[in-house]
Structure formats: C-alpha cells, structure tokens
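Cont'd.
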Amino acid sequence: MDLSKLSFILQNEPKFRFAQAYQALYRDLISDWQQASVLPLSLREKLNEECPLSIEAEISTDSGVAYSEKALLTFPDKVSVETVLMRNRDGRHGVCLSSQAGCPLGCTFCATGDGGFFRDLSATEIVEQFFFWARKLKQEDRGEKIDNVVFMGMGEPFLNYEEFIKAVKILHDPEKFNIGSRRMSVSTAGIVEGIKKLASEKMQINLAVSLHAAFDSLREQLMPIAKKYSIASILRAVDDYITKTGRRVMFEYIMIRGINDGEDDALALAALMNKSLYLVNLIPYNATGKFQSSSPARIEAFKEKLESAGIAVTQRYSQGRGIAAACGQLAGKKK
Ligand code: SAH
Ligand code: SF4
C-alpha cells in the first residue's frame, strides 16, 4: 500500500474526487481502486499504478491470547511487523499497532527487543495495519468495526514520534477513520522528550508508561534505556503532562516471578504511585524466554498491598497488555 502520491494525483482532478476517493478508501475500505466505481476508469487505473492498495499479510490464528488474532505485515523492502486484533465478546474491537520494525531498546523481557531493530515505520505503514483489520471486519460483514487503538506493538512510538503522531492524526481525522482520541492509547518505555511532546499536542490520547520496576537499579537491568531516564525524571515529565492535560496516566507493571513481584517492590511502587491521576496496571508477564510470570496468588497479594496503600490498580488483560503480550512473538518466529 502506498498513499504518498494520492493528494498529488487528486489535485489535478475536480474537487469532489477527493471526497469520492476518501469515501472509497476509508469508508468502503476498498483494496483495489477498480472497486471505486464512482471514479472514472482512467483515474482508477492511474491510482492503482501510483497508489496501490494491496497489503501483504499473513494471519496467525495462534496469537497466544484468547479472542485475538495476529497478523504479520510485510512491506515492499521485505521488512515485517506484527499487529493484533483483539475481539471482545461485546462486539467491540481493539487493534494493537507497531510503530517500528523491531525495537532498538532491547528490554530483556521483551521478544521484540530480543529480535533487534530494523527501521522506523512511516505513518502510512502504521495506518496500514489499521486498514488491514478494518478491511477484514468489513469482509466479515457483521457490522463490527474497530473501537480502540493501542500503540503497543513492536517498537517505541516516541522514538518515531513524527510518524507516530501523523498516524494518530490520520486515524482521528473525521474524513478518514474518525477514531476519537480518547479511544487511542500509546505506551512508552519512558522517553521523556516524547512525554513532553505529547503533553503539548492538542490530541488527548491516553498515555501509558512502562514502569515495570520501582527501583532504578532493577529497572536498568530490565530496560537498558532506564540508564538514560531515571524513574524520577519520568515521573517529573508525567506530572507536567498531567498538569497540562488533566488526564490520567497508566503505569504498566508486568509481574515477573521473583524479579519485581516482592513485598518490598510493592511498597516502593506504592510510594511512587501515591498521586492522583496515577493508575497502575498489573500485567501477568507473558513468558517469552528467560523470565516467568508471577503466580496469580502473588499478583493478587501485590495488588492488595498497593490497594491498601490507596493506589488505584487495575488488572486489565484486554486492550493493552494482553494484546501487547501477543505482539512481540510472531516476527521472532518468522525471522
Ligand atoms: N515500546 C513501548 C510500547 C510497546 S511494548 C513500551 O515498551 O512501552 C508494549 C508493552 O508490552 C510494554 O509495556 C512492554 O513492557 C510490554 N511487554 C513486552 N513484552 C511483554 C511480555 N512478554 N509480556 C507482557 N508484556 C510485555
Ligand atoms: Fe522496545 Fe517496548 Fe519491547 Fe522494550 S518493551 S524492547 S521498549 S517494544
């Protein structure tokens, strides 16, 4: 798929062709311009040549997480990324999008980080993942569509900030996908500059921060980028973000057996998280290699410790961690 020349080509056409092309692309979800029968044949042919709509993708039914499907998209340069569709029983759907092919941050618990880094994705390549699932739901013809978008796939969105935010704007654009900003969430490993930039955007999308440890020393072992951004510096940026936007921030904490799930960890985390508009999301770690998930009993005890300290805690499996955990495994398999 390549839409880079679309505006250029439509510029030479009568004005109403824009609306027709957008309708075909974003509403009718065509995968070939020939399907846009309102457009003149010559224009359709030209668009097929200059703005191909086909997407090369392979669906894997075994996503590792219930009610979800995973797909591997391959771009013309043979670089692949994965994306996940999360089907909820109530008919609402979420998609998890990748922002980079691979990830340069190399977190020790993450399969994506383990696989190395290939390149940044363009905004179109990020949106292409959304197109893929939107077309699939349309084909299934049950009137279902995508309600939520999380930028929690492969890569660190804030290391590809410009393309990430362009993608957010395309998804949000009422003439394109019209996804409300509150239905979009971005997760960062704690890139302070990105948190600052997001705070100054007009778009109020949800922010999640991957904390995973309450001590810098442990965090540095799990996430090498923690050497550059201390927990204190991240929380300062988050506090500024909250002052500017008035929005809640979710702190993600994956529960890794014997590593970050002890009593002292819970106490230290409670001390850090004791602020209004902070919310902790405890996520069972999805074992992909050297670590194991904490037991359900340990997670429950950890949660109780936080709650008794007055911290807001959730334990959401869908729309976030479940999907993200499912991301990070398929590309590894293929390579
Ligand atoms: N790079 C960003 C966003 C992509 S990763 C970030 O790190 O926040 C999305 C989330 O999945 C992060 O919170 C990450 O820590 C988490 N994650 C990675 N591997 C996981 C696994 N095996 N099980 C559960 N969560 C995982
Ligand atoms: Fe990159 Fe996020 Fe995985 Fe860390 S957890 S390696 S930042 S994708």
